[in-house]
From TrEMBL:
GO cellular component, one term: cytoplasm
Protein name according to UniProt: 3-phosphoshikimate 1-carboxyvinyltransferase
Function: Catalyzes the transfer of the enolpyruvyl moiety of phosphoenolpyruvate (PEP) to the 5-hydroxyl of shikimate-3-phosphate (S3P) to produce enolpyruvyl shikimate-3-phosphate and inorganic phosphate.
Protein family: Belongs to the EPSP synthase family.
Organism the protein comes from: Nitrospirillum iridis
Swiss-Prot/TrEMBL keywords: Amino-acid biosynthesis, Aromatic amino acid biosynthesis, Cytoplasm, Transferase
Length: 422
């Protein structure tokens, strides 16, 4: 099975994909729960959690700040929190983990007495964090980010007063979530107020407040643009992590493309994550609607875009400008790699993505090496094209370790042949 660092050729299966595959735990929920457990007093047990690059960066950052984090098995974290974090001896290195970077930037401002540098790899150093930095400054936090991206230097005072903070959530809901989770650590309540553009992927903020409540926080939402967080701190909890809906979209799409029957162990209706909304579109294939608004299921758009390549009619994806500031510029990447398969298959129009669907692609031999831009979602979504087209090769397949280390094994278990093609 080819799943190394070089390249993996997907061999189209001869029939429907059938079997049972359990998606990993949610990355979004795991990283929220890890942080909250690290900030809580007492021992928390997170079950069904994701073990991937992103969550390991978060767990290691907590360890670097004096939190004991045990891993008794492949899906469990046991976190022994003391209600505070210590200044680390070295900068916190968080790779390209956006959740860990944004969430920790706010958390250390309230929980650390001392200086913390929050940093990442070359990709993370291109991802914006200036709106969060500006918001934290209004709360009196001593914080700098010279480039508007990591590294960020926070001179923590071991707490903050609370108060009112405004944030434009249009670029990333993670800024809002970061401020909310920090809010429970204030000495007085914190009001988080949205300004500017509509928030992207508001469902992720709902995930945040639900996780906060599980760890003892009190959050009210008196108006659409305001959350009030009581100064409760956090208490330890046993916390089950639901399967990752973003990961599930690849399996739902593989089922739709091959006419298969893949049991994920969790019905689509049971997911609370925003990307689960993609299922309602996937089940319409090959008759996806002419326009799909991706604003509230952003990480599912790569899956839907590749699926749209085989749709009966063209599909325009709107509301996806935020995809330009993910692990890569996903709007550009999707357009470029779709058109690498067949010229004109993907087209950028402003911040929209137009997929010129072509059901005739099925069964063709179109040798194509897909550039993945070190982006796990580009790799996993374009593997779907290899289920119907001969010659699709995924470069840097190991990048899926960011959120779904077992992805290639999952496809293999369903009968997809994968060949090393370095």
């Amino acid at each position: 099975m080819g799943n190394g660092n070089g390249a993996t050729l997907i061999i189209p299966p001869q029939g429907p994909l059938k079997g049972r595959v359990a998606p990993p735990g949610s990355k979004s929920i795991t990283n929220r729960a890890l942080l909250l457990a690290g900030l809580a007093m007492g021992t928390s047990r997170l079950t069904g959690a994701l073990k991937s690059d992103d969550t390991r960066y978060m767990a290691q950052a907590l360890r670097d700040m004096g939190v004991d984090v045990d891993e008794p098995d492949d899906t469990t974290f046991v976190v022994h929190g003391t209600g505070r974090l210590n200044a680390p001896a070295q900068p916190l290195f968080l790779g390209n983990a956006g959740t860990a970077t944004r969430f920790l930037t706010a958390a250390v401002a309230a929980a650390v007495d001392g200086t913390v540098v929050v940093d990442g790899d070359a990709h993370m150093r291109k991802r914006p964090i200036a709106p969060l930095v500006a918001a934290l400054k209004t709360l009196g936090v001593d914080i700098t980010a010279a480039t508007g991206c990591p590294p960020v230097t926070v001179n923590g005072q071991g707490g903050y007063a609370g108060g009112r903070v405004e944030i434009d959530g249009g670029l990333s809901s993670q800024y809002v979530s970061a401020l909310l989770m920090m809010g429970a650590l204030g000495r007085a309540p914190t009001d988080v107020v949205l300004t500017g553009a509509d928030i992207g992927a508001k469902g992720y903020v709902d995930l945040t407040t639900a996780a906060m409540a599980a760890f003892g926080a009190q959050v009210s939402h008196p108006r659409d643009t305001v959350w009030t967080v009581a100064a409760t701190g956090y208490r330890a909890a046993d916390f089950p992590v639901e399967p990752d809906a973003s990961a599930a979209t690849y399996l739902w799409a593989a089922e739709a493309l091959t006419g298969g029957a893949i049991d994920l162990g969790t019905p689509a209706t049971a997911f609370t994550q925003p990307d689960a909304r993609a299922y309602d579109f996937i089940r319409l294939f090959p008759h996806l609607p002419a326009v799909i608004d991706g604003s509230q299921m952003q990480d599912a758009i790569p899956t839907l875009a590749v699926l749209a390549a085989f749709n009966a009619t063209p599909v325009r994806f709107t509301g996806i400008a935020n995809l330009r500031v993910k692990e890569c510029d996903r709007v550009a990447a999707l357009a470029t790699e779709l058109s690498r398969i067949r010229p004109g298959l993907g087209l950028e129009e402003g911040d929209d993505l137009l997929v010129a669907s072509d059901p005739g692609l099925v069964g063709q031999s179109l040798p194509t090496r897909i550039e993945t831009y070190a982006d796990h979602r580009i790799a996993m979504s374009f593997a779907l094209a290899g289920l119907k087209i001969h010659g699709i090769t995924i470069l840097d397949p190991a990048c899926v370790a960011k959120t779904y280390p077992g992805y290639w094994q999952a496809l293999d278990s369903l009968g997809v042949e994968l060949v090393d093609a370095a």
